[in-house]
Specification:
The protein is built from 12 helices and no strands. By secondary structure, it is mostly helical. It has 2 domains: 47 residues, no CATH class; 211 residues, MetI-like (MetI-like fold, Orthogonal Bundle). Helix 2 packs across helix 12 and helix 4 packs across helix 6. The longest helix has 34 residues. One of its GO terms (biological process) is transmembrane transport. Keywords: Cell membrane, Membrane, Transmembrane, Transmembrane helix, Transport.
Length: 273
């Protein structure tokens, strides 16, 4: 190996090490700060204690907000997966004029007109429908924002399922809903799992929509309640924030690892013919 090649390899590994450290140090802080008696925004050896965990478990707002996050994420996930599966199947099998253009237009609009840009009309709509301070209103708004992308992803999975399977099922008298439930859904299960984890992650970290639509503190999810963890002097309570952040991130990480090990994450369909 020539000196030039050696220097190039050393430079690449050094750059990769710096990038890895840039992303790893905050995660290392998040893993150690909850068990540090005096956590600080600095790299230091923690003085081990479980007092921060006990303080968090005694905080009624923290645990209640996690339950609210579970309700919002679970309800949105159920609606997104169900509606996107039905819509993706219909768009995949029914030949409508301008079908592909409509699908791309919905995907484009959902990417351009994000939740921030659309919050004024969404708030007015929720107000007219009497959905302010309602978990159902938050779930419906979040579902509407996630559906276009979910339909776009699931349509590819549905396109990969052979139509001949459905034709055989129709011969034996299966209805369209029975075909979707017993034939299409098992074949696109990896896609459904991907959409489920993706929708939960999107809702789990969403701050703006619950903050604007929910008025009662007892209905606020964890992403909103975390904003209140400050001392009387206005300084962030690092012990409480770090412990809550670790607990807050665990459900999504565990779900991601479970689905990834069971189905894997991919954005295309496929079946052996």
């Amino acid at each position: 190996m020539s000196p030039r090649e050696l220097l190039g390899r050393v430079g690449r590994y050094t750059l990769l090490s710096l990038v890895l450290a840039f992303f790893a140090l905050p995660l290392l802080w998040l893993a150690t700060a909850p068990f540090d008696r005096t956590p600080e925004i600095a790299a230091s050896w923690p003085e081990f204690t479980l007092d921060n965990v006990r303080e968090l478990l005694d905080n009624e707002n923290a645990l209640r907000s996690l339950r609210n996050s579970v309700l919002l994420a679970g309800g949105t996930c159920a609606l997104v997966v169900t509606l996107s599966a039905l819509a993706a199947y219909a768009l995949s099998r029914v030949r409508l004029p301008g079908r592909d253009g409509l699908l791309y237009a919905l995907l484009l609009l959902s990417s351009i007109v994000t939740g921030t840009a659309a919050m004024v009309p969404l708030f007015n709509l929720a107000y007219e429908l009497d959905l302010i301070d309602s978990r159902l209103g938050v779930i419906l708004v979040l579902t509407g924002g996630l559906l276009p992308s979910a339909i776009f992803i699931l349509k590819d999975f549905t396109d990969a399922t052979p139509v001949s399977y459905e034709e055989s099922a129709r011969v034996f008298g299966a209805s369209p809903l029975q075909i979707v439930r017993h034939l299409v859904v098992p074949l696109i299960r990896p896609g459904l799992a991907t959409i489920g984890v993706w929708s939960v992650a999107q809702v789990w970290g969403n701050f703006l929509i619950p903050f604007l639509l929910l008025r009662s503190p007892e209905k606020s999810p964890a992403a909103v309640v975390m904003y209140t963890f400050y001392t009387e002097g206005g300084q962030p309570d690092l012990a409480l924030i770090s412990t809550f952040s670790l607990l807050y991130s665990l459900p999504v990480v565990l779900m991601f690892l479970f689905v990834s090990s069971r189905y894997g994450f991919r954005f295309h369909g496929g079946i052996k013919r």
